Amino acid sequence: MTVLSPFVCRGQTPYTYISRIPQRTDAYFQTFTYLGEQRELLTVSTFLTDSTLYRIDTYRIAGPPYAQRIPLDDRLVVLREGPTKVMYPNGQVYLSCLYRVNQLDGPFLLYYNDGTLKRRELYKNGSLRQSHCYTPQGTEQPCSALYQPIMFNGSYKVLQRYLEKNIQPVLDRTGAVDAQVQLTINEVGQLTNIEVNSYSKANDEDLITSIRTVIQAIPQQVPNQQNWQPATMDGVPLTEVQRFFITKRKGFTYVNMPLSTPN
């Protein structure tokens, strides 16, 4: 049962957004615990509706000078710091890892639902140093890729050119020189949400609406298929985000689209 994306123990994004208040839905609810002299450390515990513990995530809240650059009043800008743990519905640990300054640093452990070790990896400052995988019987076996990022069902160069060509008039009209875009791609490859932010034109509705329109109009690449293939972790499709960054320099628009990153 996947309530939230449980696969967060990889990736090295510069920051993470979370809601300022605990979330409650038909599938889960959260509690927040603040620690530290300045309440700079935050533990988010997520429970299923029957109060079964589903996961624990720990964060360090980004300092005010950094946070103020992000025009997101309803969310906190945080770095992953400390342990992350995800549970099976039966209470067994599924996944356990450690972060330091938003990078994996230490053991990464993945378990079968009976508690048997499935995968053991060791990270140092975000870099994978060792990887060992095991069958349910405990025999070591070759490791396949744990995480597969979101993939575009077409040429990334063609997509980049499309975005640069169609976003250029938007930047010219609004006077913006930058934008940060976050696409949410669900487990079946559907584009379910588009977030647009800008340092130079914060909360400019024309900019936000126009960039969303450009993205929604990306031509279909393969007949009868979504434009995106979902990310997978441990072979399971999951909802993830694809970020890209728009800059305007010397009258030209550039789009940088790194691989998908944790939600």
UniProtKB/TrEMBL annotation:
Organism listed in the record: Spirosoma oryzae
Full protein name: Uncharacterized protein
